[in-house]
């Protein structure tokens, strides 16, 4: 309970912080709407009584008092309707403000969290639940609190009206709805537990949906005729969650029917008592109308109150998923003693690095040590799965090693602000990003802080040989590329790789890491780039990861990795003379070309 109260307080704080003026307006209009129906019922009672009195007197004309009461009824009816419409607008505006604020929190947290989280399935579960609940759940807490308060206040006012007729009618109004309170709270807890358990299955359903509708899998789905297979998997996963939830709702509905029968009996009893009182002359026709309307409104308000109470209980369960995600720790951060490193001046040293992915029993990187001096071009080579890309991520401090260290100019990079340290690096990842944006903007992503980058963008595009193609696009560098949005142009995979390489070149960082930068390039472009490689990197310290041995022979030094360990190191000539793993891999590849 203490945790839920804490979540309530934190949620209301977030709601207030996102839109204080709209939150206050929401509260004021909600309180106002509690009193308007009571005033309207009282005015209707007075109107009916005076009309009855005039009709029985045989006066034949409508006195001014009746006209003024009619005007008053219309005015308060209009105010009630207007307040309802205004309340809807205010809530929508507040909801929009909060949604924007919560998405900001969610996205900021997501981009700061350690990359290693994406290797854990439980992280995807937490992210899925938080993404589903964060934009609206805190606002739901405030709205439910306001609605519950308004419903309770209105209910007490209507119960007070009924107490004038008979005090136990007011008690009956409250008592017959107690089963509904228990029912909503009980099944809300059951539904929450069910949805919590079903998060992995829901993600599986979403994955099968993406396979059937996404662009990336579309080619293989059609080529291998996998459509019907994945449709069946989607239906099986989808129906499994839906049918289990329907079973829970079915049980709740059956119990609700019994509760509704009790309520109907209470309504019957109340109407019989009111009718007897009216016929016997105990109350006037106006009072009868007032009591009937009060009982009816009371049933509506207690339903609103119960709905808000159950919603609040549900919010207290689900909002925990949001705060669970927002409270995830960022372990890749600057550890004390914190240091500053403005530029790369001397060397970067890997010292006995060890790293294991979550869930794996064997190390991906095992006791790796080497030094890279400023201005060197280093090649990392080895079989698939040797750990080359993982090593690059450790050097970028996207991961932290479980033991060992990376030392940059004598400073352990763990003592540096990761964001500032990464400004020293520019990378082309093996699975580089394809941004469905303008061609020039794709290149500018390498250094988004650059204010006037047009000339530099063109220069970077020329280096990688993509400038001519971009200029032929309908709007040149302003042409949207990709297939996601209209008026865009798709590129080949090799052309996308040139864009990614231009993006890395555009970022004037002293350390350049290229992970398979030519895997999709045509032979002529690849030859041209690597023939001019030293001019392209302009003296930057470069780490080249490639399976094409004809490209890496230009490196000052080659580091050979196998099963997460450094097994050889030296120049191309030195490694060929040693006749180790490098010699074997190079000979096999070159002999294929010779044939």
Your description of this structure?
The protein has a six-stranded mixed sheet with strand order 6-9-10-3-11-12, sandwiched between helices. Strands 2-1-4-5 form a four-stranded antiparallel sheet, covered by helices on one side. Strands 7-8 form a two-stranded parallel ribbon. Helix 2 packs parallel to helix 5. It has three domains: 2-326, ABC transporter type 1, transmembrane domain (ABC transporter transmembrane region fold); 335-424 and 509-595, Rossmann fold (3-Layer(aba) Sandwich), CATH 3.40.50.300; 439-508, no CATH class. It is α/β, with parallel strands linked by helices. Strand 4 (403-408) and strand 5 (411-412) form a beta hairpin. It starts with a helix and ends with a helix. Helix content is 64%, strand content 10%.
In short:
By secondary structure, the chain is an alpha/beta fold.
Assembly level = single chain
Shape: elongated
Give the C-alpha Rg. 35 Å
Helix content: 55-70%
Strand proportion: 5-15%
């Amino acid at each position: 309970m203490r945790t839920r109260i804490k979540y309530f307080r934190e949620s209301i704080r977030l709601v207030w912080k996102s839109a204080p003026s709209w939150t206050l307006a929401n509260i004021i209009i909600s309180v106002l709407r509690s009193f308007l129906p009571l005033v309207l019922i009282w005015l209707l009672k007075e109107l009916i009584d005076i009309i009855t009195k005039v009709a029985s007197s045989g006066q034949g004309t409508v006195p001014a008092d009746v006209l003024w009461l009619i005007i008053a009824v219309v005015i308060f009816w209009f105010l009630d309707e207007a307040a309802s419409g205004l309340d809807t607008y205010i809530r929508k505006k507040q909801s929009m403000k909060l949604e924007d604020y919560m998405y900001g929190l969610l996205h900021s947290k997501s981009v700061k969290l350690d990359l290693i989280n994406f290797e854990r399935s439980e992280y995807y579960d937490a992210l899925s639940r938080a993404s589903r609940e964060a934009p609206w759940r805190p606002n739901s807490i405030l709205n439910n609190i306001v609605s519950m308060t308004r419903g309770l206040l209105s209910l007490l006012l209507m119960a007070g009206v009924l107490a004038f007729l008979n005090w136990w009618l007011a008690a009956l109004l409250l008592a017959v709805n107690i089963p509904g309170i228990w029912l909503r709270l009980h099944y809300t807890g059951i539904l929450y537990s069910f949805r919590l358990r079903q998060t992995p299955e829901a993600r599986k359903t979403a994955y099968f949906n993406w396979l059937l509708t996404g662009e990336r899998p579309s080619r293989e789905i059609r080529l291998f005729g996998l459509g019907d297979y994945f449709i069946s998997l989607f239906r099986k996963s989808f129906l499994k969650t839906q049918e289990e939830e329907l079973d829970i709702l079915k049980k709740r509905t059956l119990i609700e029917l019994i509760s509704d029968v009790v309520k109907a009996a209470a309504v019957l009893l109340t109407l019989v008592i009111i009718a007897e009182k009216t016929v016997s002359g105990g109350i006037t026709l106006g009072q009868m109308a007032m009591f009937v309307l009060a009982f009816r409104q009371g049933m509506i308000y207690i339903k609103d109150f119960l709905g808000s109470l159950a919603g609040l209980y549900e919010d207290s369960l689900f909002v925990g998923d949001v705060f669970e995600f927002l409270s995830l720790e960022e372990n890749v951060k600057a550890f004390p003693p914190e240091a500053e490193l403005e530029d790369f001046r001397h060397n970067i040293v890997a010292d006995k690095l060890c790293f294991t992915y979550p869930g794996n029993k064997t190390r991906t990187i095992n006791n790796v040590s080497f030094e890279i001096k400023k201005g060197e071009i280093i090649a990392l080579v080895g079989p698939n799965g040797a750990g080359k890309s993982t090593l690059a991520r450790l050097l970028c401090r996207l991961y932290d090693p479980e033991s060992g260290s990376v030392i940059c100019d004598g400073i352990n990079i763990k003592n540096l602000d990761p964001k500032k340290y990464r400004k020293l690096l520019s990378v082309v990842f093996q699975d580089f990003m394809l941004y469905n944006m303008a061609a020039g903007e794709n290149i500018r992503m390498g250094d988004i802080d650059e204010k006037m980058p047009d000339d530099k963008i063109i220069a970077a595009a020329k280096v990688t040989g993509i400038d001519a193609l971009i200029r032929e696009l309908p709007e040149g560098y302003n042409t949207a590329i990709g297939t996601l949005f209209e008026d865009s142009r798709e590129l080949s995979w090799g052309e996308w790789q040139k864009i990614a390489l231009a993006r890395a070149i555009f970022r004037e960082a002293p350390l350049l890491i290229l992970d398979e930068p030519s895997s999709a390039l045509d032979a002529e472009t690849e030859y041209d780039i690597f023939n001019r490689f030293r001019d392209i990197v302009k003296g930057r310290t470069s780490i080249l990861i490639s399976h094409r041995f004809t490209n890496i022979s230009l490196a000052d030094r080659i580091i050979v990795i196998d099963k997460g360990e450094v097994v050889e190191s030296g120049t191309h000539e030195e490694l060929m003379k040693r006749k180790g793993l490098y010699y074997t891999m190079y000979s096999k590849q070159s002999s294929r070309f010779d044939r």
